[in-house]
Each structure stands twice: as structure tokens, then as C-alpha cells.
Amino acid sequence: MDSRDRALAVVRSLPLAGDAERSSGAIERGETEQLSGGDTNG
What we know:
- Residues 16-42 are annotated as: Disordered.
- Helix content is 83%, strand content 0%.
- By secondary structure, it is an all-alpha fold.
- It has one domain (2-36).
- The chain is flat, with a radius of gyration of 10 Å.
- It starts with a helix and ends with a helix.
């Protein structure tokens, strides 16, 4: 689960407020796996 936390931290650190808001919505919906899951799966 560290990978997910790291991805979230990176997204939050990004200077893109729009992206962060979009990610937040996806995270609440549980679509994070599709957005960041791809990288985790490799």
C-alpha cells in the first residue's frame, strides 16, 4: 500500500490544483486503481 500512498503524495505535491481536485474525486469514488493502479501493476 506504500505505492498508493506515494502516488497520492506525489499528486498532492503536484502544483496542478486542477489535477489534484480531479484525483481527489477519483480517490473518493475509488477509481484510483485505474489512475494509479496501472503504475503499481507495472
